[in-house]
Design goal:
The protein is of the alpha+beta class and 108 residues long. The chain has five helices and three strands. The N and C termini lie close together (9 Å).
Length: 108
């Protein structure tokens, strides 16, 4: 599957189940606590792109979209539950869940 042929993350069923949260914003620490994801992991996702900084509040906290956080946490916890290697990335550059090449070949 090529980069161009991937479905945008917002159109994936995994993301759609959290679409109702799209108008909610929260701080990174609050998101980490609520979705039980390490703060550094969330910072990595912000840095690499699956989660975007939507704005900043009066205290200059970075606010993220709750739908993005919920989706990323869902993929993260599903990967951990399936005991996938922690060395493989969780997401592709476009925010879609990472699939090893061997799995992509099986789906053809």
């Amino acid at each position: 599957m090529t980069e161009e042929s991937r479905t945008p993350k917002e159109n994936l069923p995994e993301y759609q189940q959290f679409a109702h949260l799209k108008t909610n914003f929260m701080g990174v620490r609050e998101a980490a606590e609520q979705y039980k994801v390490p703060v550094m992991t969330l910072h990595d996702w912000v840095k690499k792109g699956p989660i975007l900084i939507e704005s900043r509040d009066a205290g200059y906290r970075r606010l993220v979209n709750e739908a993005d956080v919920a989706y990323c946490a869902y993929v993260y916890h599903r990967k951990k539950k399936n005991k996938k290697s922690s060395r493989s990335p969780t997401f592709n550059a476009d925010g879609t869940p990472f699939k090893p090449k061997s799995q992509n070949m099986l789906e053809r």
